[in-house]
Amino acid sequence: MADSLLTELARIVGADHVLTDAGSRASYETDWTGRFSGQARCVVRPADTTGVSRVVAASAAAGACLVPQGGNTGLVGASVPRAGEVVLSLTRLDGLEPVDTAAAQVTAGAGVTLAALHAHAEAAGLSYGVDFAARDSATVGGSVATNAGGLHVVRYGDTRAQVLGVEAVLADGRVVRRLGGLPKDSTGYDLPGLLTGSEGTLAVVTRARLRLRPLPRHRVVALLGVGSTHAALDVLAAVRGLPSLSAVEWFHDDGLRLVRQHSGLPAPLPAEHPTYVLVECEGQEPVTETLAGALDGLAAVGDVAVAEDRRERAALWAYRERHTEAVAAESAASGGGPLHKLDVAVPLAALGDFEAAVRRRCADAGAQVVLFGHLAEGNVHVNVLGGNDDLDHALLLEVAERGGTISAEHGVGVAKAAWLPLVRDATDRAAMLAIKRSLDPRGLLNPGVLFAG
Ligand code: MLT
Ligand code: ZN
Q: Which pTM value belongs to this model?
């Protein structure tokens, strides 16, 4: 039977950019985890904002639901279809405007990868404050939609702290445009702030006006071996006050073992340690002495490796950044079902106790758990091999009981929608739902994401 929506979409974007056969749809239908997938009615790939607007309007006229998608590096099932939706791929919106060096801002299309944005900013002597391992595929639009955090939140804040403006297509196809980038603007509701972190449920972000920072002339990375997460927190306390601090990450011996198995990397330090902390500092003046001074005499520290040179810094970062792929490879090899990834955060005062509770619960359930993440924010990536929904539930209760959040930087997606009530009370959820219903009354944008059922 002819699908008149597909004909209309092909008229808007060209037949080559409406993917209907299973083979060409496949990579858009399953997310990075492999845990979330579904069949799309089609994948449509407009080239610009006007195209997105016309696609959204045509879909709305046909009553078709849309799933916006960027680089499809998400980990909570928010960017893949669930029940025959149209996948709206934004990757062709990859325009980067010239950097405004006086304002230290740039306007980037939703499909620009983080790596391309970093290179563009650096060529103008500036840098972008959000970075994470999926930088080569993850896009500006996706990172705005999830309010991505990443490695440098301790210095620059999350994506919301970088977003000065957005352009977005509303559920009926109209375009809201606030790209002026005024640092001061007191004229009512902050739509860019609202759309950041809305996970494609309120509008489709097509461009963002982003804050840039001075490009640091000096950087240093130290990888420290310590005895436990408690000792890692002692390191954090010692470096927290450094104005040059740009990252404090941590992982454990089990994760390091998987990274080394998977990558063939050599041991990072002369001896093995239960826990590892990676600290990075950056600034316009040399930063190594300052970091060394802060760590000097710290009883918690066993071994240290220090790198200043770009290549050597990347080599130390690899031990932390390659956890995601190593854990996924181990999970696939073990054949124990899909990897359950919980991105949570707890107050630092509760972190040690939380970690112990997670390990106990996973051991009781016969599941292997690998913990790593962003120590400065108490943001733990709980990777459960051989996990299940009941164990997820128990672990997320442990988070909520300690005043934590069930998603620190990956979003709620479909993965955590059922647990939103653990951290957002009834009034809070009713206010969110009122916003959703006023901007998308027919529920056409990313159904099933954020709000369960
Ligand atoms: C990370 O910090 O490496 C990312 O959030 C990805 C992950 O959690 O696996
Ligand atoms: Zn992370």
A: 0.97
